[in-house]
From TrEMBL:
This is 4-hydroxy-3-methylbut-2-en-1-yl diphosphate synthase (ferredoxin), chloroplastic. It comes from the Eukaryota. Gene3D superfamilies: Dihydropteroate synthase-like, Sulfite Reductase Hemoprotein, domain 1. It comes from Hemiselmis tepida. Its cofactor is [4Fe-4S] cluster. Residues 616-704 form the IspG C-terminal domain. Pathway: Isoprenoid biosynthesis; isopentenyl diphosphate biosynthesis via DXP pathway; isopentenyl diphosphate from 1-deoxy-D-xylulose 5-phosphate: step 5/6. GO terms for biological process: isopentenyl diphosphate biosynthetic process, methylerythritol 4-phosphate pathway; terpenoid biosynthetic process. The lineage of its organism: Eukaryota, Cryptophyceae, Cryptomonadales, Hemiselmidaceae, Hemiselmis. Residues 1-22 form the signal peptide. NCBIfam families: ispG_gcpE. Belongs to the IspG family. It catalyses: (2E)-4-hydroxy-3-methylbut-2-enyl diphosphate + 2 oxidized [2Fe-2S]-[ferredoxin] + H2O = 2-C-methyl-D-erythritol 2,4-cyclic diphosphate + 2 reduced [2Fe-2S]-[ferredoxin] + H(+). Its EC number is 1.17.7.1. HAMAP family: IspG.
């Protein structure tokens, strides 16, 4: 696709794209397919229907090999792990120490920010110092705004990362620029080529690798004016630079499409892969969710984004960007790679399910499948409508012995309590899955169940358990084969039936769902079967048959799985379905405590852009550009503002991605200068150069000024 033909196409196409520039859940993804007639008339190449090698089993997308130092990146090699130092690059010894510690933790490559001549000169000393200590780990220079600096550092570092959004275009201003004719657009492309070509030739001469790394938060003003803030713009931004590389027969490069929103990130990489299939390109992919944050939330968002793509065989090198010390990123990297490689303690997770063909999922659409919520029937003794939530449901697994301590159980389920009575809160489990019988003689346990039902918490239990020990107004859970044989006759006291499906059933057995009409489906894929592909098979069947039964993803973790394992595996294996809009909730079963599994469930729904139950943070992982103690400040902000569901706050160490990522945030806290903070509302800076000691208080006041603040409940304050 030539730049001139693209420009002729984009002027009329922009009107089609602009209204979708703010990507939202359920919205059709903007892409070059938005106006096929215009595209055909302009001679523009369109994205292929294929974005991965197979949608029914995990196969790595074939790529060429890119060589960064002595590390080979591509489909014929293990997925390479990398991270980024947080020391100032001008601090030579600090940077050397960071690199060594990261390498010792398992990093195959380590990236350092190189923002000016002083840092570029330090790079020579850093490389020399590492070699003297026997460390040959390839070093990657992170370049923004500085083509001349890139030329300098290409003489000593092994790989250069360029950001197409600011390499040649300079600092983003977010001014609206309207290109009246193709000549204006072409003039911009000519300037990019003039600026970027020397680095291409330098890398080719020196044998250096390159990453063309688009960031959702730092698209150029030119790209924004045509595409808006969209995945299509991210792809085209990278392709502008790739065409220049190819023009000079330089192919030792790879791509990345990073965003803080996992859904945008996944859509951009899939669109990129589809375009490369269509063009016959085979460049590797570097995966990452940028500004993912810290702790469980950062790991969950990374697992949803990176894990979803790895499940489809996309990705050749990965970085988990956490607001933590860089060497701590390597453990989740290793775990995600382990899941992708199909092995976890000798269990194979990437095994194919029975033969089937996918016809209903369009990877370019991302439209949510809407399950039919429970309907109230005349004569129902309880309100059945509350057992599921319209934005995504959480079902918590409860053993019968937990009922012996009702107050502790209510707490673990996220209930508020008053005089011993539970009440639903914003992040209360919608239903429980009771795993064993509760004797009729256990009055305290029976009272606890009744009280939960009275406040809208559903009680689901296996039909065999309810036959042994009936519970009034319970939902009886049948295996699909069991339900088909019995006609789903309800046990005594049960009010509705639910069905467990594995995705490994035969086609005739799945066909029984149409006649059963269950309240919900629990999708529980057995060990040894690929969850993502079994799930896709089930949703393919439901869509083809026109069945709107809500589906809860039920995933069980063994006792050997710690908290990080639970987060990363759940995010990878369930998140891939949720980002496609397939699923109405989650039920996580495992050995960690019930409260943790509940909050992880809500974290999965929020990370998948389904249900917001807490403040969302867009927090960068820190690097040598960071102008304040990011970890400490992020913790302080989260402690003060973590009780504001529906509010998104960006915490950025510097200006590089800061303003752009404000597109995904309501409020922003961005380092503007040493000791000084700029505050944003959306993309607009509203308060500048605030002393760091006063900035968190000013942020809180800003939130109050915009009527987004609520005071913490007494219970929440006491919990801290």
């Amino acid at each position: 696709m030539h730049a001139s033909s693209l420009a002729l196409f984009l002027v009329p196409l922009f009107a089609c794209l602009h209204e979708a520039s703010a990507f939202s859940v359920g919205a059709r993804l903007p892409s070059l397919r938005r106006a096929p007639a215009l595209a055909k008339a302009a001679g523009v190449r369109m994205a292929a229907d294929k974005y991965c090698e197979s949608v029914t089993e995990t196969k790595r997308r074939p790529t060429r090999t890119v060589l960064a130092g002595d590390v080979k990146i591509g489909s014929e090699h293990p997925i390479a792990l990398q991270t980024m130092t947080t020391s100032m690059t001008s601090d030579v010894q600090g940077s050397i120490d960071d690199v060594m510690r990261c390498a010792d933790a398992g990093a195959d490559l380590v990236r350092l920010t190189v923002q000016g001549n002083r840092e570029a000169e330090a790079c020579y000393k850093i490389k020399e110092g590492l070699l003297k200590k026997g460390y040959t780990t390839p070093l990657v220079a992170d370049i923004h705004f500085a083509p001349k600096v890139a030329m300098m550092v290409a003489e000593c570092f092994d790989k250069i990362r360029v950001n197409p959004g600011n390499f040649a275009d300079g600092r983003k201003t977010f001014k609206e620029i309207n290109y009246e004719n193709p000549e204006d657009y072409q003039a911009e492309l000519d300037f990019i080529e003039e600026t970027f070509t020397p680095l291409v030739l330098k890398c080719k001469e020196e044998g250096r690798a390159m990453r063309i790394g688009t960031n959702h938060g730092s698209l150029s003003a030119r790209t924004l004016s045509y595409y808006g803030d969209t995945p299509a713009g991210m792809v085209e931004s990278a392709f502008e630079f790739a065409r220049i590389c190819r023009k000079h027969d330089y192919h030792n490069f790879l791509f990345s499409m990073k965003a803080s929103n996992p859904k945008v990130m996944v859509s951009a990489y899939r669109l990129l892969a589809a375009e490369m299939y269509d063009l016959g390109w085979d460049y590797p992919l570097h995966l990452g969710v940028t500004e993912a944050g810290e702790g469980e939330d950062g790991r969950m968002k990374s697992a949803i984004g990176i894990g979803s793509l790895l499940q489809d065989g996309l990705g050749d090198t990965i970085r988990v960007s956490l607001t933590e010390d860089p060497w701590l990123e390597l453990d989740p990297c290793k775990k995600l790679r382990g899941i992708a490689d199909g092995q976890r303690e000798n269990k194979v997770w990437s095994q194919a399910v029975p033969t089937w063909r996918e016809t209903t999922r369009d990877f370019k659409e991302f439209t949510k499948r809407e399950g039919q919520l429970p309907l109230q029937k005349e004569g129902d003794p309880i309100d059945i409508r509350n057992v599921l939530h319209r934005d995504g449901s959480v079902v918590s697994v409860v053993p019968p012995e937990a009922l012996s301590s009702p107050d502790a159980l209510y707490h673990d389920l996220g209930c508020k309590t008053a005089v011993g009575m539970p009440f639903k809160d914003l992040a209360t489990s919608d239903s429980i899955l009771l795993t064993g019988p509760v004797p009729a003689s256990d009055k305290a346990a029976r009272t606890a169940l009744r009280r939960m039902q009275e406040v809208g918490i559903g009680v689901i239990s296996p039909a065999a358990v309810l036959k042994e020990s009936p519970i009034d107004n319970a939902i009886a859970l049948f295996d699909l084969s069991e339900a088909a044989e019995s006609g789903a006759g309800l046990p005594e006291g049960a009010i509705r039936a639910a069905v467990t499906v594995t995705g490994a059933e035969g086609d005739q057995e799945l066909a029984e769902l149409k006649s059963l009409d269950p309240l919900l489906i629990m999708l529980k894929v057995p060990d040894g079967v690929s969850r993502v592909h079994a799930s896709r098979r089930v949703f393919e069947h439901l869509k083809k048959e026109g069945l709107e039964t809500p589906v809860i993803h039920h995933i069980e973790h063994g006792s050997e799985h710690g908290k990080d394992d639970v987060v990363l595996r759940t995010g990878s294996e369930v998140g891939v379905s949720l980002v496609d809009g397939n699923g109405d909730g989650v039920c996580i079963q495992g050995s960690p405590d019930l409260s943790f599994l509940r909050t992880t469930s809500f974290g999965l729904l929020q990370g998948s852009r389904m249900r917001n139950t807490k403040t969302e943070y867009v927090s960068c992982p820190s690097c040598g550009r960071t102008l304040f103690d990011l970890q400490t400040v992020t913790e302080e902000i989260s402690q003060s503002t973590g009780h504001l569901p529906g509010v998104t706050i960006a915490v950025m160490g510097c200006i590089v991605n800061g303003p752009g990522e404000m597109a995904d945030a309501d409020f922003g806290y961005v380092g503007g200068a040493p000791g000084k903070i700029d505050l944003y509302v959306g993309k607009e800076v509203v308060r500048k150069a605030i002393p760091s000691a006063e900035a968190v208080g000013e942020l809180i006041q800003l939130i109050k000024d915009h009527d987004r603040w609520v005071d913490k409940d007494v219970d929440e304050e006491g919990a801290e």
